[in-house]
């Protein structure tokens, strides 16, 4: 969903915008990040840990 707004993501997966915001917040908490720009770094770091 790169580059999509919360509203666009909600429309694509047919849920409310508030649901998208809640789910993204939960993902950020689990990855221990605060911004969208940190997602890739967190995922890359996690994949290095697994290998």
Describe the structure.
By secondary structure, the chain is mostly helical. It has one domain (6-50). Helix content is 69%, strand content 0%. It has three helices and no strands. The chain has helices at 6-13, 17-31, 39-50. Helix 1 (6-13) packs across helix 2. It is elongated and about 35 Å long. The mean pLDDT is 87.
What tags apply to this protein structure?
3 helices; elongated; 51 residues; mainly alpha
Q: In summary, what is this structure?
A:
Helix content is 69%, strand content 0%.
Percent of residues in β-strands: under 5%
- Shape annotation: elongated
Structural class: mainly alpha
Measured between the Cα atoms of the first and last residue, the distance is: 26 Å
* Largest sheet geometry: none
Strand and helix map with partners:
Elements: H1 6-13, H2 17-31, H3 39-50
Helix pairs in contact: 1-2
